């Protein structure tokens, strides 16, 4: 379980670095975020929800059954869109309304 | 490394659920200077980082706080403190109302009443519960937050706390903090035992891997009395992702079934430990793997599940999307490695009703405080409130700061500097951590032995843990973050010794799996309806028993 940061998209704002509960993300001298301790990621997804550029993707390690899909979030119209991209290019999106309670 | 000396009235160590709420409570009480030291950033730190799925502890209509006490007591088979459970239960609804005022979304029916889930839960959108608390703390007057400051030791003289020492893991600073009173709220301990997936996904565990038992260890080393470390918590989770199962069980009434499709949960009982034990036993007897039966749920139910998990354990939703969804495939379950966590089971500081520990001026709240299982998030907030009230009262009465002795400040600075050496010993912190987890797994009732242990094994574990403690003296680190990793390892080793001592002390098996003592496989109500407590004396953890509080007892005071 870990994250993947798209260098192209990252603007070095440092918000992911600020929120990570494990202090695992650092900003390098080129103002790009990177995960310094990938094996220490808890998978809380705080960093990706925080990223203004949707640069952070999260995946399941192969050791826990990951199959190479990446998930990230985008926000618009008061909704959080969770977008899963599969290795074959297909995607699934689930929209969450933060103002709505869980049904369960 | 710079040194910064700080003076404050109330120091709160750990800005999680309990710590944040303690700060909010104390801030309302006048002009105190309050300081939170948090190893991460309070916006997304601790258990609440990813979000929570429900408020698990609430007094629903027609029920009373005493009903909650009775429930938690039954689940722990009697080894709880009535006064502690009662005082949190009284406050569940008040802290919930406060959370709603702060912005937490809680589901209501057409009459404006909270919608319940089962007898004790209410439904929420808990994804942003931590940012909500953090925002409130930021707005509170007189509260200062030092993020990325990891506390490494208390300063205690004549059994009275005077402050603490810490390291700024990103600003290369050593902190010496003087305080009139201290609230410890560092949560419980994960990472003591070899986890389910020790490789790349080793940190995909239930309890936050960053809650390393610092609060327990610092207290133990300064002679605080601790309770019930033998009542380990083992979570029953969705396989691999270690996502919660309660939402499936309560949300779509999914039953636990074995590989033959038989519902087995009723066979073993429905307490938290019995559910784990049932699954372990089904596997051992060849009827595994086990599942939660979700096949056949409706599309609407499935959609709600996928969404609910995104708000608290997104990896499970990803897992479903990558593989097969719950309507089409039952969800495999497994039990985790054991954790020490006072919010689920009863391990932690031995406190009085006001959450005063046995060290004067030190109060404990949340997962670090013992005697009070099933407190969950609302109970952690309630304890934060109770501890803050008591600490404020203490400061008004006899609180004064006394300067931290210079030689002690220097010793702590030197210890940190000693680790900050380029010289590399033979072993790394990571290697020793793995060694510790392997020892606990093999000899102290980890996953490998299906949580079972005997005294001979515990003796071996104890010797090996001592040896590892010696090896930590030679560890080296490149920066203060890596120094923190060394301290975390040392804390965990101390907690391991306490767990071992407690497991050995309780000569019965009261809770299957949580403390499955093969030398004493039966429950013994005649001799062991007691608390097992402990205290460090001359460098050795000494265990002893205390009588249970009386049925319905509302207060408990330490006898000094
Ligand atoms: C995955 C998960 C899901 C949960 N889901 C629910 C739920 O749905 N409903 C519910 O009611 N309850 C839930 N709980 C329980 C609830 O979250 C906890 O009981 C509660 O958060 C405990 O509060 P705490 O303050 O004791 O610990 P935490 O909230 O974890 O806070 C401890 C804080 O101390 C900091 N810290 C640790 N060591 C140090 C140090 N040495 N120096 C400085 N800071 C330090 C940590 O970074 C952290 O911020 C869940 C728990 C977990 C782990
Ligand atoms: S998912 Fe959580 S633990 Fe992992 S890098 Fe992001 S913020 Fe840190
Ligand atoms: S939050 Fe996003 S944009 Fe900002 S530093 Fe992190 S990855 Fe880069």
Question: How would you describe what is shown here?
Answer:
The complex is a heterodimer of chains A (104) and B (560). By secondary structure, chain A is mainly beta. Chain A contains 2 helices and 7 strands, in the order E-H-E-E-H-E-E-E-E. Chain A has a single domain (2-96), classed as Alpha-Beta Plaits (2-Layer Sandwich). Chain A has helices at 15-19, 46-50, and strands at 2-5, 25-27, 33-35, 56-59, 70-76, 79-85, 91-96. In chain A, the strands form 3 sheets. A 3-stranded antiparallel β-sheet of chain A has the order 5-6-7, with no helix packed on it. Chain A has a two-stranded antiparallel sheet with strand order 1-4. The mean pLDDT of chain A is 95. Chain B has 3 domains: 2-187 and 341-407, FAD/NAD(P)-binding domain; 236-335, Succinate dehydrogenase/fumarate reductase flavoprotein, catalytic domain (Flavocytochrome C3, Chain A, domain 1); 422-521 and 537-547, Methane Monooxygenase Hydroxylase, Chain G, domain 1, CATH 1.20.58. Chain B has helices at 17-27, 65-75, 82-89, 92-102, 129-139, 214-221, 246-251, 265-268, 272-284, 299-310, 314-322, 376-398, 406-419, 429-443, 455-472, 480-505, 525-528, and strands at residues 2-13, 34-38, 52-55, 105-106, 116-117, 121-126, 143-147, 149-157, 160-168, 173-184, 226-227, 236-238, 256-257, 290-292, 331-335, 348-349, 362-364, 452-453, 516-517, 530-537, 540-547. In chain B, strands 1, 2, 7, 8, 9, 10 and 17 form a 7-stranded mixed β-sheet that branches. In chain B, a hairpin with a 3-residue loop joins strand 5 (116-117) and strand 6 (121-126). In chain B, helix 1 (17-27) packs parallel to helix 5, helix 2 crosses helix 3 (82-89) and helix 4 crosses helix 12 (376-398). The model of chain B has no long low-confidence stretch (mean pLDDT 96). At the A-B interface, strand 7 of A face strand 4, strand 6, helix 7, helix 10 and helix 11 of B. The structure holds flavin-adenine dinucleotide (FAD) and iron/sulfur cluster (2 copies). One iron/sulfur cluster (SF4) binds at residues 5, 10-16, 33, 50-53, 55-56 of chain A.
């Amino acid at each position: 379980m870990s994250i993947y940061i798209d260098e192209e998209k990252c603007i070095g704002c440092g918000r992911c670095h600020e929120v990570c509960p494990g202090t695992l993300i650092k900003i390098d001298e080129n103002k790009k975020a990177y995960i310094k301790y990938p094996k220490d990621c808890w998978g809380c997804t705080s960093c990706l929800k925080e990223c203004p550029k949707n640069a952070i993707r999260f995946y399941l390690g192969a050791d826990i059954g990951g199959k190479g899909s990446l998930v990230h979030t985008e926000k618009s119209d008061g909704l959080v869109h969770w977008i899963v991209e599969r290795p074959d290019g297909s995607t699934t999106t689930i929209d969450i309304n933060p103002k709505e309670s869980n049904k369960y | 490394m710079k040194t910064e000396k700080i003076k404050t009235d109330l120091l709160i160590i750990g800005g999680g659920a309990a710590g944040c709420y303690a700060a909010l409570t104390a801030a309302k009480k006048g002009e105190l200077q309050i300081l939170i030291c948090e190893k991460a950033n309070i916006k997304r730190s601790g258990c609440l980082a990813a979000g929570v799925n429900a408020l698990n502890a609430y007094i629903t209509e027609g029920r009373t706080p005493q009903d909650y006490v009775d429930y938690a007591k039954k689940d722990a088979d009697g080894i709880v403190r009535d006064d502690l459970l009662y005082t949190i239960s009284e406050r569940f609804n008040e802290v919930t109302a406060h959370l709603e005022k702060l912005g937490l979304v809680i589901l209501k029916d057409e009459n404006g009443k909270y919608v319940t889930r089962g007898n004790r839960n209410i439904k929420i959108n808990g994804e942003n519960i931590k940012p909500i608390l953090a925002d409130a703390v930021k707005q509170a007057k007189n509260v200062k937050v030092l993020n990325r400051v990891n506390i490494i030791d208390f300063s205690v003289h004549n059994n009275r706390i005077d402050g603490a020492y810490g390291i700024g893991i990103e600003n290369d600073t050593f902190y010496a903090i003087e305080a009139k009173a201290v609230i410890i709220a560092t949560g419980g301990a994960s990472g003591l035992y070899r986890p389910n997936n020790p490789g790349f996904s080793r940190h995909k565990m239930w309890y936050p891997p960053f809650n390393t038992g610092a609060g327990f260890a610092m207290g133990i080393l300064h002679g605080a009395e601790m309770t019930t470390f033998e009542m380990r918590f083992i979570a029953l989770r969705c396989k691999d992702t270690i996502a919660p199962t309660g939402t499936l069980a309560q949300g779509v009434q999914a039953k636990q079934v074995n590989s033959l499709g038989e519902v087995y949960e009723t066979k073993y009982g429905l307490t938290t430990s019995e559910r784990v034990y049932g699954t372990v036993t089904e596997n051992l007897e060849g009827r595994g793997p086990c599942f939660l039966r979700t096949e056949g749920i409706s599309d609407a139910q499935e959609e709600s599940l996928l969404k609910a998990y995104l708000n608290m354990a997104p990896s499970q939703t990803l897992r479903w999307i990558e593989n097969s969804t719950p309507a089409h495939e039952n969800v495999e379950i497994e039990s985790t490695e054991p954790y020490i966590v006072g919010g689920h089971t009863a391990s932690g500081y031995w406190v009085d009703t006001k959450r005063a520990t046995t060290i004067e001026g030190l109060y404990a709240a949340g997962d670090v405080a013992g005697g009070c299982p099933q407190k969950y998030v609302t109970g952690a907030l309630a304890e934060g409130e109770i501890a803050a009230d008591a600490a404020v009262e203490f400061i008004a009465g006899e609180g004064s700061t006394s300067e931290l002795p210079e030689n002690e400040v220097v010793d702590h600075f030197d210890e940190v500097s000693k680790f900050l050496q380029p010289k590399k010993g033979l072993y790394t912190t990571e290697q020793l951590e793995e060694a510790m987890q392997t020892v606990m797994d093999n000899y102290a009732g980890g996953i490998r032995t299906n949580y079972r242990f005997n005294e001979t094994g515990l003796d071996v574990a104890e010797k090996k843990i001592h040896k590892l403690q010696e090896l930590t003296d030679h560890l080296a680190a490149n920066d203060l973050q890596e120094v923190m990793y060394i301290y975390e390892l040392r804390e965990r080793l101390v907690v391991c010794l306490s767990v071992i001592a407690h497991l050995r002390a309780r000569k019965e098996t009261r809770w299957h799996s949580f403390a499955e003592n093969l030398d004493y496989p039966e429950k013994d109500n005649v001799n062991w309806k007691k608390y097992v407590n402990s205290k460090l004396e001359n460098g050795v953890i000494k265990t002893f028993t205390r009588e249970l509080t009386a049925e319905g007892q509302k207060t408990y005071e330490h006898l000094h």
